[in-house]
Amino acid sequence: MIQKILFSQPRPETAHNPYSRLEEQFGVQCDFHQFIHTEGLSAREFRQQHINPLDYTAVILNSRLGIEHYFRLCEEMRLTVPDTMHYYCNSEQVGLYLQKYIQYRKRKVFFPESGNRFEDLLPAMHRRPNERYMMVLSDIHSQAPIDMFAENNIEVQPAIMYRTVTTPWPADKPFDYDLIALFTPAGVKALKENFPDWQQGDTLIAAFGNSTIQAMEKAGLRVDITAGQGQAFASLPMAIADYLEKNN
Fold first, then answer.
1. Overall domain count for the chain
2. Is the pLDDT of residue 161 over 90?
3. Domain residue limits at 87
4. What is the pLDDT of residues 25-66, one digit of tens each?
5. Interatomic CA distance for residues 102 and 90, integer angstroms
6. Does the residue 154 lie in any domain?
7. Residue 12 sits in a domain of what CATH number?
């Protein structure tokens, strides 16, 4: 019987969200704890990678965080990002966030028409064979997009601009959940770091995305519920609702 669910992300700001609907429909308690947070690399740390952002004509971005740290580091290093810079984003949401930092023009910003597949950027990239690409990343990231670009004869320079850090679990807060929902490989790592001696036992774990599933399996954890690309459900709340419908 599932009664308490922990989601490893911040609590939604709006009252009406998929998690409150889980509580209303199934009578469960949903708690939230951000297992990880990010810290930007300093300009000195970044320079140790021997990468000059101005050597590249295009930046590949996969998150708002990536955008923020790219422009932050350029400012710290006193680099003026040229107006000619091109931006390749994995989603329209990420692309539109660039408006906070640049004069937004469609001929400078590229993103898939739907979804968040980097593969959908390949036609635009192949139309610019002389482009030089740098991809903004966290220290914990998937190698898959870089490998995919390489397989399509597109050379990409990975640039680590921020790190993912485990957020400690509050010492006075019990860790007694029937179901834990993890969204990233870093979340899996944080769970193990916070509770090195924890045994899964009857506790269910829900995982979002193939990389998270693989990280769980590598960590010796059992994957009970899945969601994301290639899975039966697009989101974890949907997958958990289906599980509760059938089992609670």
1. 2
2. yes
3. 39-164
4. 999 999 999 999 999 999 999 999 999 999 999 999 999 999
5. 18
6. yes
7. 3.40.50
| Residues 227, 232, 234, 236, Cα dihedral to 10° | -40
227 and 149 in a common domain:
no
Please identify which residue in the block is written with the tokens 């090195």.
196
In a domain, 72, yes or no: yes
**CA separation, residue 167 to residues 2, 186, 193 (Å):** 25, 11, 10
**Does the pLDDT value for residue 19 go beyond 80?**
yes
Give every CB contact of residue 10 below 8 A, 6+ residues apart in sequence: 32, 34
Crossing angle of helices 185-194 and 210-218, rounded to 10°? 30
CB 167 within 8 A of CB 34: yes
Looking at the structure, tell me whether residues 52 and 94 fall in a common domain: yes
* pLDDT of the residue at 183: 93
81 and 22 fall within a common domain:
no
